[in-house]
Design goal:
Layout: E1 2-12, E2 16-28, E3 37-47, E4 51-52, E5 55-57, E6 60-61, H1 63-77, E7 84-91, H2 101-111, E8 117-119, H3 122-133, H4 135-139, E9 146-151, E10 156-162, E11 165-172, E12 179-181, E13 187-190, H5 195-200, H6 213-231, H7 238-241, E14 256-260, H8 265-268, H9 276-279, H10 286-297, E15 303-305, H11 313-320, E16 324-327, E17 339-346, H12 353-360, E18 370-373, H13 381-394, E19 402-406, H14 411-422, E20 427-430, E21 439-443, E22 450-457
Parallel strand pairs: 1-7, 7-8, 9-14, 14-15, 17-18, 18-19, 19-20
Antiparallel strand pairs: 1-2, 2-3, 2-4, 5-6, 9-10, 10-11, 12-13, 16-22, 17-21, 21-22
Helix pairs in contact: 1-2, 3-11, 6-10, 12-13, 13-14
């Protein structure tokens, strides 16, 4: 049986914002008595034009104008918010640090459908951009690892894939709009994030002064060298380390590179920089940064692959690749969903499940949590009863429903046992969902026995 659901992706970036709508096909592929439901196709059915992110000033997003843009795109696509089953609003780069960023997410998630995840985790952005750019798919064909750098206006989000799996994800304060210029090429903005680097490089760049092309080139060349340091697994200097957001990378030596984001357009094209007019196409240094990276990649022992999507990579990842599904063999309570931002308490040892839950619950004081574990491929009734008993005992005294996600296909049996032993408490038990400690999950309303789930890995640790 094949069914289709609609997904939305909204990317609010430092420089640009955009919307896509996707149709995701879900199909039962079971060849045995065990049901198996999978996503079989993802088709983009509408792409908005690319807007400059509306700002009241440097520190404040124009919420009302942004809302009108998104609503207009819904109308152009002929889609109502009630039609949306899943999707993601990703607020990226320096935009995520604006004074009213949280207000923006609250407003947009309110009108964008009952089940739309809103998140700004930089590592999650990296993964979604890598999927949208095509790096994840290409990694399944390559014998070596590949890294995708998604370079936007305020930040760069990077992810390393091998065989379709994520090895590392991280973000840097490197982007095309860290310095802005007016029509007379005077500098109107310099990000605080790069002022220490500018001083270290001995550059004379000041707000109100006319930009000097050679000075700007020295800065973007320094950024380009940082990308090479990271890709080649070289020891990082302190200036580079200071530009990482939240945590460093894992230091893989890489052979394959891919670039997405707005700056990537100037890495792959032949736009030459000879004057400030060549730089100042969009009021920032984005074209120059792309030119510097292209120049530094020449004669390097690295293979540059062309991204399937460049400036649209993140929004396509958000709208088409943020969804997981669980279906057919689940136990579910539609009266308590949608549920958003549930931290996952990941169980490592099934035999000590009760103790692990009790010991780790204190990490999430006052929060509703989901219990996640792998479990046996085909557990016996006795094993399922032991797991249910341990979960109930571990969560004793917690005023929340039982929410469990397992990797193997026994969620319905476990859920029914929990229901029988727990009495009146609501139970949601889902299978075929892989989680890690540190993940958050969102759970939507079921659609014909299929439950949409978004797993948000906000931080990849070394």
């Amino acid at each position: 049986m094949r069914q289709e659901i609609l997904s939305v992706g909204i990317d609010l970036g430092t420089t640009t914002s955009q919307v896509i709508f996707s149709r995701i096909a879900i199909e039962s592929l079971a060849l045995t008595a065990i049901p198996e439901v999978k996503i079989t196709d993802k088709t983009i059915i509408y792409r908005s034009k690319i807007y400059f992110t509306p700002m009241k000033n440097i520190g404040v997003i124009d919420v009302e104008q942004l809302k009108q843009i998104i609503l207009a795109e819904y109308e152009m696509a002929g889609i109502r918010k009630e039609d949306i089953v899943t999707g993601a609003i990703i607020i990226t780069g320096e935009t995520a640090r604006k004074e009213n960023a949280a207000d923006v997410l609250n407003v947009l998630s309110d009108f964008a459908g009952d089940f739309v995840v809103a998140t700004a985790g930089p590592d999650l952005e990296s993964v979604l951009a890598g999927y949208g750019a095509g790096a994840a798919g290409l990694s399944e064909q390559l014998p070596e690892k590949i890294i995708n750098f998604d370079i936007g206006g305020g930040t760069t989000n990077a992810v390393v894939f091998v065989g379709g799996q994520v090895l590392d994800a991280f973000a840097l304060d490197i982007g095309g709009r860290l310095i802005c210029l007016d029509e007379q090429h005077r500098i109107t903005y310099i990000s605080e994030k790069i002022k220490a680097l500018i001083q270290t490089l001995g550059l004379v760049l000041a707000i109100g002064a006319r930009a000097d092309l050679l000075e700007l080139i020295k800065l973007t060349d320094a950024f380009a060298r940082m990308f090479l340091q990271i890709s080649l697994g070289e020891i990082l200097d302190e200036e580079t380390k200071d530009l990482f957001i939240e945590h460093l990378h894992q230091g893989w030596q890489l052979q394959n590179l891919m670039f997405s984001g707005g700056v990537a357009e100037f890495i792959y094209n032949e736009h030459e920089i000879k004057t400030l007019e060549d730089v100042n196409l969009f009021g920032d240094i984005g074209p120059l940064l792309g030119w510097s990276i292209r120049k530094h990649l020449k004669n390097m022992p690295l293979t540059l692959h062309v991204a399937k999507e460049k400036i649209r990579a993140t929004v396509i990842g958000a709208g088409s690749y943020s969804l997981h599904i669980s279906g057919s063999t689940v136990l579910f309570d539609d009266t308590i969903v949608p549920l958003k931002n549930l931290p996952v308490l990941k169980i490592k040892n099934i035999k000590s499940m009760q103790e692990e839950i009790i010991n780790k619950r204190c990490l999430f004081p006052g929060q509703m949590i989901a219990i996640g574990f792998v479990g046996a491929a085909a557990p016996t009734y006795f094993q399922i009863k032991e797991m249910a008993t341990a979960i109930i005992a571990g969560l004793q005294g917690a005023e929340q429903p039982f929410i469990v996600v397992v990797e193997h296909d026994f969620a319905k049996a476990l859920g029914q046992t929990l229901q029988r032993l727990a009495g009146n408490k609501s139970v949601i038990c889902l299978d075929c969902i892989k989680t890690e400690m540190g993940d958050y999950i969102d759970i939507g309303k079921s659609v014909a026995n299929v439950v949409p789930v978004v797993v948000k890995t906000l931080l990849f640790k070394n």
